[in-house]
Design goal:
With about 170 residues, this protein is an alpha+beta fold. Helix content is about 25%, strand content about 35%. A hairpin with a 5-residue loop joins strand 8 and strand 9. Helix 2 packs antiparallel against helix 3.
C-alpha cells in the first residue's frame, strides 16, 4: 500500500500553535479524503481486532462546524515537519511568532497503528510540511536550490520514498 500525502490546497486557519503542536481547521473535502484513506488502511486490521473483541479508535479529527474539522498535530525533534515561509523558503529559526488566525498550508500523511494489546487500532496524522502563508518572507530571493538542499539532508528513519514525498510537497508550491 502506498502512503498518500494530503495537502490543503488553499490556506487553512490555525486555531492554536504551541512549540511542537498545532490545531488547524481543515475543510470537509480534505477530511472526506482522509476518511476514505483511513477506511482503506484499516480494513485488513479492523476485522482481526473486532474478532478479539477490540475496536477502532476515534479519528484524529473532530467536527468544528458544518464546513470544517479541527485537526491536532504534534511532532518531536526527530519528526519535525519542513517549515516554509510565504515565498516557499525554508523557515530559519526555532519558532514563528504566534498570531491568531494565522493562515497555513499543510502536507500530512496518515499511518495506521495497532495497540500493543491488539485490542484497538486507528490512524495517526503526521505533519510533513507547513507553509506559513501569513509569515513574513525571508530577506532573500526565492531559491529552488535552497529548498532542494533541505531534502538532500539525511534524516533519521527517513526512507527514499518519504524524501520524494517531502520534495513533492515543496514542488507543489513552486
Amino acid at each position: 500500500m502506498t502512503t498518500k500525502v494530503f495537502l490543503t490546497p488553499d490556506p487553512v486557519r490555525l486555531l492554536e500553535s504551541h512549540g511542537q503542536s498545532l490545531i488547524a481547521l481543515v475543510p470537509n473535502f480534505v477530511i472526506n479524503e482522509l476518511q476514505q484513506d483511513r477506511d482503506e488502511q484499516l480494513q485488513h486490521v479492523l476485522q482481526s481486532v473486532q474478532q478479539r473483541g477490540g475496536q477502532c479508535l476515534p479519528t484524529p479529527w473532530t467536527p468544528h462546524d458544518e464546513h470544517c474539522h479541527a485537526i491536532a498535530l504534534q511532532w518531536s525533534n526527530a519528526t519535525r515537519p519542513h517549515r516554509l515561509d510565504s515565498d516557499c523558503q525554508p523557515w530559519i529559526g526555532d519558532e514563528l511568532p504566534a498570531q491568531g488566525d494565522q493562515l497555513v498550508r499543510l502536507a500530512m500523511q496518515q499511518k495506521p497503528y495497532l495497540q500493543q494489546d491488539g485490542m484497538g487500532c486507528g490512524t495517526v496524522l503526521r505533519l510533513i510540511g507547513i507553509q506559513y502563508c501569513s509569515a513574513p518572507s525571508m530577506p532573500r530571493e526565492p531559491s529552488f536550490e535552497a529548498v532542494a538542499e533541505l531534502f538532500r539532508q539525511s534524516g533519521v528513519n527517513r526512507s527514499a520514498g518519504e524524501t520524494l514525498l517531502r520534495s513533492q510537497f515543496v514542488a507543489s508550491f513552486l
